[in-house]
Amino acid sequence: MRIFLTGATGFMGTTIARELITAGHQVLGLTRSELGAHALAAAGVEAHHGDIDDLDSLRRGAKFVDGVIHTAFNHDFSTFVANCERDRQAIEAMGAVLEGSQRPLIITSAVGMGSMGNNALASEDHFNPDHPNPRKASELGGLAVAQRGVNVCVIRLSQVHDTVKQGLISPLIELAQHKGVSAYVGDGQNRWSAVHISDAARLYVLALEKNSAGSRYHAVAQEGISMRTIADTIGRILNVPVMRIEAKDAPAHFGWISAFVDHDMSASSALTQQRLAWHPTGPGLIADLDHMRVQTAP
Hints:
By secondary structure, this protein is of the alpha/beta class.
């Protein structure tokens, strides 16, 4: 199949592109720059010039392909609500091109959208349209185009990691380096789920090839790692003290990431593994962080 991939030059997209090509697919990758186009060409990917805020470029990219995988997202959290709304618009723009066909549109969300509260594991089959997290806009956009007959599938990501990046944990590391302390909120028992980037990329390809309309899948290898464990690991890696922060003081210490750091984002992938025969094999989060210690040591 020929697949239009947004975010093709990003952390997630570059690995997905490689998995798609290995599986025998052709990739048309979205890029904003000539530098990005050269990087795509070197990876065997055809470049499509455009931007996630340029809806016409997204429509053109989706027009003459066999399916779309949408991973691009603006991660500037100072404009998070607006970014989520733009993602909904992007999904609806590409979906409009795919109406009346069985061509899949795979969109990206977060495992928190499957949360049922009370620190229970988020589930693939649950979605709360009234969820307070603005990221719900992506799935609402998917539902809107699905109601018009578009073949939509959702991949919900946990903390995607390798030895270079670790999702929201990367800014926690930067913060600990800057402040000289690795902190957690309250008792630190809220948990974050995680997955190695190689496993997450393989999941996108399996979902594409399964082509099951209306499906939701969780890219989760580890259901939940406590924030206290993460903070302790960061402290050990950086050789800085570990400190408890009370919830009322979290915004002052953590800044924008305080909106996430005391939340439980644990999740199950039991249904995903059953439905796609997907079984994660990559290194765990703490193992990747431990390898980072070697890379970042003076």
